[in-house]
Design brief:
Blueprint: H1 3-16, E1 21-25, E2 30-34, E3 38-39, E4 41-44, H2 56-66, E5 71-75, H3 84-89, E6 92-103, E7 117-121, H4 125-138, E8 144-145, H5 147-154, E9 159-166, E10 169-179, E11 182-190, H6 199-213, E12 218-224, H7 228-233, E13 237-247
Parallel strand pairs: 3-8, 11-12
Antiparallel strand pairs: 1-2, 2-4, 5-13, 6-12, 6-13, 7-9, 9-10, 10-11
Length: 248
């Protein structure tokens, strides 16, 4: 499995161990569920080839129809675009594509000095509450993440929360999840009023330099299309795609 995909799915599994979420591992897929109306609510880790008699789109349609979840995160390489008409006829539609990206320690991650900027690991209750608010306002749609879940994840030794303060205000954030020398970046967000100041770029550089100094061998992430140029400038290289499907 692609290291970015593997890191993401294990990140979901760690969330499923918290008190605020439940994870169910089935023979050919996994489901993670938080309280009603809260993130996460999704199907992932689908084994498209467990039943050799079924096409990948048939497997996805069956699993989504049988599940109460409306969202599935899938490796798009398993689904042929010409066969997605079958999914549409089943009321299942691709709504977002992530580009899988990775960077190794030999890439240039020089950090330019910025005034009025402070880099900090977020540990205190009020810092984590600010992290949650920024995540919900800038990243989440109708499903918001619970502050309780954020505090539970902060107690997980595999996860770290980082923020960049601009003029003493939390302006940009990242969560890292590290397992087996591979670190994933999640919840990358910057307050809308501070975009264009390269704060996110500054924060990402600081975090990946820190991770590499701690013996991380590779940093991975899943990028929305508009963010791919930014990550490319930072040395990340594409290594695949994931698609989120929605059940009508």
């Amino acid at each position: 499995m692609n290291e970015s995909v593997n890191n993401l799915f294990n990140f979901y599994r760690e969330i499923g161990k918290s008190d605020s979420a439940i994870i169910k591992e089935n023979q050919d897929h996994s489901i993670i569920t938080a309280e009603e109306g809260r993130w996460p609510q999704m199907i992932f880790n689908i084994d498209f080839f467990r039943n050799s008699n079924s096409q990948p789109e048939e497997v996805l349609a069956r699993i989504m129809k049988e599940s109460k979840q409306n969202f599935a995160v899938c490796d798009i390489s398993n689904l042929k675009s010409e066969n997605q008409s079958f999914l549409r006829s089943s009321g299942i539609y691709p709504i977002k594509t992530w580009t899988l990206m990775e960077v190794s320690p030999n890439e240039n991650t020089f950090i330019q000095t910025q005034q009025n900027v402070e880099f900090r690991e977020l540990k205190k209750g009020d810092e984590l509450y600010e992290f949650c608010n920024l995540t919900n306002s800038e990243l989440m749609g109708s499903l918001k993440i619970s502050p309780v879940l954020i505090h539970e994840l902060a107690a997980n030794k595999k996860m770290k929360f980082y923020g960049l303060y601009f003029r003493s205000e939390l302006a940009s954030i990242i969560l890292t999840y590290t397992e087996k020398e591979i670190s994933g970046l999640y919840f990358i967000a910057t307050k809308s009023e501070y975009r264009g100041k390269k704060l996110s770029e500054n924060l990402i550089k600081r975090v990946i330099n820190l991770l590499f100094s701690q013996k991380t061998e590779k940093v991975v992430l899943q990028a929305v299309q508009k963010a791919v140029p930014l990550y490319t400038r930072l040395g990340f290289k594409p290594c695949g795609n994931l698609t989120i499907f929605w059940k009508q």
